[in-house]
Write a structure and sequence with these properties.
The chain has 13 helices and eight strands. By secondary structure, it is of the alpha/beta class. Helix 5 links the parallel strand 3 and strand 4. It is globular, with a radius of gyration of 23 Å. The termini are far apart.
């Protein structure tokens, strides 16, 4: 009898919990839909109203656009933060590169990678307004596509037939948009697709070409990386692959010269390698972030920072350099999934890398931004009604 009562209590608790999760999912989905309705159109209307400024004084226009862009990405950050999906960062101190031109290369596992990076950069000043994302062209068709078009992110074509064309367009975009807009960080996913979709193809290619067979990452594609380095790194480089590889610490002479040279030149100063690791090797995804049905968890970001002058300019050795970074990611992720800890001390560039620390968000700022977007939407609607009545 007692056993039956206990089983009944457990059943009631399970039903209650599932009901709670279902209600939470419905509320979050409604909220995210409304959030898109009063944020994205408002951003577009503000950019339309400021359009004359783009002709009269472009630097001010792009500064304002970057500010609005940051505020929009803060809304996306709030989705994951309110669901309890926190970020923990380890490795090199990236504060030294955030004000310089920096190429960010990241392993790609799921649709949550971009929101996680947005949440990370949202916690830092003046990063998101001056960032450029390189993403698959399919994202142009999403609700956020119009925002990325206005912000002048780059949509790269996928597939072998389109690859050369996409690389040429990327080179032109760097010269015509990234440099003139004075953007700083540029985010690239060299793998060109999600882990679950590319792993089998990557492993077959690796076995065929005597390359490392990877399980937790896939071999990076090279076209976009080569193009960016070629266009933005006209610097002498250190030799790599000779068997006497130079260590990359913050005291290197190459780094000292980078910090003291003229920053007005259109040069890439850093390559920031970020390794994303989800708990248990099970990635979040965008639907999970929106609905929040998965239990709260921590996603790890491991930073490794390299002066751009240490990336080889010869394409063959440049390819080896990038493949070596991905082989190191594989070993780091394998250790993390087995032990729950990143072996960042073994792979990071600085002599004293930072230990695990939580990325903190600002609730008050989220609240103020919501008030701003809602008030702006109401004001824009009122103006539209008044203009329509005159017509």
């Amino acid at each position: 009898m007692k056993m039956g009562i206990e089983e009944l209590d457990k059943g009631i608790c399970t039903i209650t919990y599932r009901l709670f999760v279902a209600v939470k999912v419905v509320i979050r989905v409604i909220f995210v839909l409304l959030n898109n309705v009063y944020c994205i159109p408002t951003y577009c209307v503000w950019m339309l109203m400021l359009l004359p400024l783009r002709k009269l004084y472009p630097p001010l226009y792009w500064k304002m656009e970057g500010l609005f862009f940051h505020w929009l990405l803060a809304m996306v950050t709030m989705w994951s933060w309110t669901a309890g999906y926190d970020l923990v960062e380890v490795g090199d101190d990236i504060r030294v590169c955030l004000d310089d031109r920096t190429l960010v290369v990241v392993n790609h596992q799921s649709t949550s990678d971009v929101p996680m990076l947005m949440a990370n950069f949202n916690a830092r000043r003046n990063v998101l307004p001056n960032i450029m994302w390189i993403m698959d062209w399919i994202f142009k068709l999403t609700n956020f596509g119009i925002v990325s078009i206005i912000h002048q992110d780059f949509f790269i074509l996928s597939g072998k037939k389109q690859r050369d064309k996409g690389v040429k367009e990327l080179r032109a975009h760097l010269r015509e948009s990234y440099i003139p807009r004075k953007r700083k960080l540029m985010v690239l996913f060299p793998e060109g697709g999600f882990l679950r979709k590319r792993r089998e193809t990557s492993q077959k290619y690796a076995m065929k070409n005597n390359l490392p067979v990877l399980n937790y990452v896939t071999l990076p594609r090279l076209g976009a990386f080569h193009a960016i380095i070629d266009e933005l790194t006209p610097l002498p480089v250190t030799k790599y692959g000779s068997g006497k590889e130079e260590t990359n610490t913050y005291e290197d002479s190459a780094l000292v010269s980078l910090l003291t040279e003229d920053k007005s030149a259109d040069k890439l100063s850093w390559v920031l390698d970020i390794t994303i690791a989800y708990p248990g090797g099970v990635p979040l995804d965008l639907p999970t972030i929106i609905m929040g049905y998965r239990r709260a968890c921590k996603t790890y970001l491991c930073y490794r920072l390299y002066p751009a002058s240490q990336v080889p300019r010869d394409h063959e050795t440049m390819t080896k350099w990038l493949f070596d970074r991905w082989a190191e990611k594989e070993r780091m992720l394998e250790t993390f999934y087995q032990t729950g800890e990143f072996p960042y001390q073994m792979y990071c560039s600085s002599e004293k890398p930072l230990g695990p620390q939580l990325v903190h968000q600002d609730f008050l700022r989220f609240f103020i931004l919501h008030v701003f977007f809602i008030a702006s939407s109401c004001a824009h609607y009122w103006i539209f009604v008044q203009l329509w009545s005159l017509i």
